[in-house]
Amino acid sequence: AQSVTQPDIHITVSEGASLELRCNYSYGATPYLFWYVQSPGQGLQLLLKYFSGDTLVQGIKGFEAEFKRSQSSFNLRKPSVHWSDAAEYFCAVGATGGYQKVTFGTGTKLQVIP
Amino acid sequence: ETGVTQTPRHLVMGMTNKKSLKCEQHLGHNAMYWYKQSAKKPLELMFVYSLEERVENNSVPSRFSPECPNSSHLFLHLHTLQPEDSALYLCASSQDFSRGYNEQFFGPGTRLTVL
């Protein structure tokens, strides 16, 4: 069974600073990988996903993530954070065989300070 | 309405009450999901329906009873809940349950409080 770890529960960055949120996964093959964002009072929204091809994936809102097989990681990055990026971010891993079972991490809450 | 909608957005109920959560997707998707989101815990998949047939039931207590009358609607019937069932209940849908790379589209959730 797959699993995903987000080691940082809470991160605080200054507006305009760069951001990197960590995600490590465990899966026996190349997985499907996702980053979702959840704003307060809202459901989850997909930022980006990886399932094959180029290991650097571009998403919405200026986010990108890089799949590193050797490190079993899929870290999310943004070069310059905006106050509106304050939210909770979830990494998820999906199985590539059989049905669509997606396992979510515990989330990283991002605080942006002026 | 667009996307995935959920009603009610907030619900407070006693342990002896019976209530239902409703989810509707306007995306033409074939699969629908119920998740439970509790503080400091990963999203817990509760139920999955594909083409109105239940395909996943993750050892959820019988006090939660899902219903999928058609591919656009999903209900979660609640009865004799416990305080530990208080959480945010999220509904999601995806185009095809069998394809793991399909994005799931989430509703805003129902914040449930059990007294």
Secondary-structure blueprint of this entry?
The complex is a heterodimer of chains A (114) and B (115).
Chain A: E1 3-5, E2 10-14, E3 19-21, E4 24-26, E5 32-38, E6 44-50, E7 56-58, E8 64-68, E9 73-78, E10 87-94, E11 102-104, E12 108-113
Parallel strand pairs in A: 2-12
Antiparallel strand pairs in A: 1-4, 3-9, 5-6, 5-10, 7-8, 8-9, 10-11, 10-12
Chain B: E1 4-7, E2 10-13, E3 18-25, E4 31-37, E5 44-50, E6 53-57, E7 64-70, E8 73-79, E9 87-94, E10 105-106, E11 110-114
Parallel strand pairs in B: 2-11
Antiparallel strand pairs in B: 1-3, 3-8, 4-5, 4-9, 5-6, 7-8, 9-10, 9-11
Question: Would you mind describing this structure in some detail?
Answer:
The complex is a heterodimer of chains A (114) and B (115). Helices cover 0% and strands 52% of the residues of chain A. Chain A has 114 residues and is mainly β. In chain A, the strands form 3 sheets. In chain A, strands 2, 5, 6, 10, 11 and 12 form a 6-stranded mixed sheet that branches. A 4-stranded antiparallel sheet of chain A has the order 3-9-8-7, with no helix packed on it. Chain A has a two-stranded antiparallel ribbon with strand order 1-4. The model of chain A has no long low-confidence stretch (mean pLDDT 92). Chain B is 0% helix and 56% strand. Chain B is mostly beta strands and 115 residues long. In chain B, a hairpin with a 2-residue loop joins β5 (44-50) and β6 (53-57). Chain B has no helices and 11 strands. The interface between A and B is medium-sized, with 27 and 29 residues.
